[in-house]
Amino acid sequence: MPDATLDDRGRLTLPKDTRERYGDRYRIVELHDGIKLVPIADDPLDALREEFADVDESADELRERAREEALDGAGR
């Protein structure tokens, strides 16, 4: 993984191959031991649709399944 440094104005320049792979927009996430740059898709809704294209359950069904799994994990 390449290193990057801030310039005297506080700007961070990412290497060209990184920008080409992940794009030009990022969300900065603060962690307890540093930061993480999370790429932001040009169209976030399209990215979500693609990510969940193969999910056949409704949101209510997914929520109920997650609830059941959490209860089972808690020793119900």
Automatic annotation (TrEMBL):
This is AbrB/MazE/SpoVT family DNA-binding domain-containing protein. InterPro entries: SpoVT-AbrB_dom (IPR007159), SpoVT-AbrB_sf (IPR037914). GO terms for molecular function: DNA binding. The keyword DNA-binding applies. Residues 4-45 form the SpoVT-AbrB domain. Keywords: DNA-binding. It comes from the Archaea. The keyword Hydrolase does not apply.
